[in-house]
Amino acid sequence: MRGLRGRWRDRAVAAAGLTVIWALLWGSFTPLTMLGGALVAVVVLTVFPLPPVTYAGRVHPLGVVRFAWRFVRDLVVASAQVSALAFRFGHVPRSAVIAVPLRVPSDLGLTLTAEALSLVPGSLIVEADRESGVLYVHVLGVRDAAGTERFRRDVLDLERRIVHAFGSPAERRAIKEPPT
Prior knowledge:
With 180 residues, the chain is mainly alpha-helical. Helix content is 62%, strand content 12%. It has six helices and three strands, in the order H-H-H-E-H-E-E-H-H. It has a three-stranded antiparallel sheet, with helices on one face. The longest helix is centred in the middle third of the chain and has 26 residues. The mean pLDDT is 88.
């Protein structure tokens, strides 16, 4: 019985999220817009049911603050670096596709790390291998092997911050082990 209640709770949360997105797209939060969004959400979730997502972790407020602060800093720094590369006339920036094996094998951790990484200018996820937990990232401005290793360490640091913000106790223990 508990599984059924949890599934309905997950569907209700998804429907609420889709309803908010609907209202944001329309630009108004009137009762009619919210009702229309709720109807669209129910239809979408009925026609395209979402697979069950398990979340064994919990939100750690201090970890979320640390993650958010560093993420905003990374956005600002990366934006300045990409702008500098764009305005260097006569210079062709080098790039690379780098494989980064993550330490925590959860789908949620892989997804959150990939999304956060994709939002930072200068990096883009080319592929995410779910089975092996490897992200393949296209990186702008990599010059040598040292730059490649520095980027790989930065991604693992991002993963660590995400796990400390949203991870389960087992994931938090796994992240303390040295990377392979």
